[in-house]
Amino acid sequence: MKNFLLVVLAALLLTNAAPAQTNPVQDVLQSQRALIEKSSRRSIGPAIDAIVSSGLPQMQEVLEAWRAKDMWQRKSDGFFFAAKKNSDGTYALQSFDSGASVGDFAKSDLKQLKPNSGIRAMIATALVQFQLTDPDISKRSEALDSIARDSEAALLAPLRASIAAETDPDLLVRKIRLNHLMTMTYDADTASRVEAINNMAGDLGVDYRGTLNPLLSTKIEITDIGDVPDANIATDLRPGTENFSRQTAYEILVAAQLAPPEVTVDARDAALEANIVAGRVGGLPVAQLSTEIKRNAAYDTLVTDGLAAPRITATDIDESLAKHRFFEVYAEPSAEVTTAAKAALAKSQSRVAVSQAVDLGLDALSLASIYFLAAIGLAITFGVMGVINMAHGEFIMLGAYTGYVVQLFIPNHTLSILVAVPLAFAVTFAAGVALERLVIRWLYHRPLETLLATFGVSIALQQLAKNIFGTQARPLTSPAWLDGAWAINDVIAISYIRIAIFILALLFFCLFLFIMKRTRLGLETRAATQNPRMAASMGINTDRVNMLTFGLGSGIAGIAGVAIGLFAKVTSEMGGDYIVQSFMTVVVGGVGNIWGTLAGAMMIGGFQKGVEWLNPSNTLAAQTYMIIFIIIFIQFRPRGIIALKGRAAGD
Amino acid sequence: MNRSFIARNPSVLVFLALLGLFTLVVSVLSEGFGVGLISTSFVKTLGKTLCLCLIAVAMDLIWGYAGILSLGHFAFFGLGGYMVGMWLMYERTRQIVVNSLAEGVLPPTPEEIQAAIGNQIFGVVGSSEFPLIWFFADSLVLQLAFVVLVPGVLALVFGWLAFRSRVTGVYLSILTQAMTLGLSLYLFQNASGLRGNNGLSGLQNLPGVTAPQSAVSLWFFWASALALGLGYLLVAWVVSGKFGSVIRGIRDNEARVRFLGYSVESYKLAVFTLTACIAGIAGALYYPQAGIINPAEVAPIASIYLAVWVAIGGRGRLYGAVIGTAFVSLVSSWFTGGQAPDVNLGFYTIKWVDWWLILLGLSFVFVTLYAPRGMSGLIDLLVRKSRGEDT
Amino acid sequence: MRTTTALATALTMGAALPAIAADCTIKVGVLHSLSGTMAISETTLKDTMLTLIDQQNAKGGVLGCELEAVVVDPASDWPLFAEKARELLTVHDVDVIFGNWTSVSRKSVLPVIEELNGLLFYPVQYEGEESSKNVFYTGAAPNQQAIPATDYFLEELGIEKFALLGTDYVYPRTTNNILEAYLQSKDIAKEDIFVNYTPFGHSDWSKIVADVVALGADGKKVGVISTINGDANIGFYKELAAAGISADDIPVVAFSVGEEELSGLDTSNLVGHLAAWNYFQSAETDANAEWVAAWKERMGTERVTNDPMEAHYIGFNMWVNAAEAAGSADVDAVRTAMYGQEFPNLTGGTAVMLPNHHLAKPVLIGEITADGQFDIISQTTEVAGDAWTDFLPESAKLVSDWKGLGCGMYNTETKSCVQTLSNY
Question: Which one of B104, B128, B199 has the shortest CB-CB distance to C414?
Answer without folding.
Answer: B104
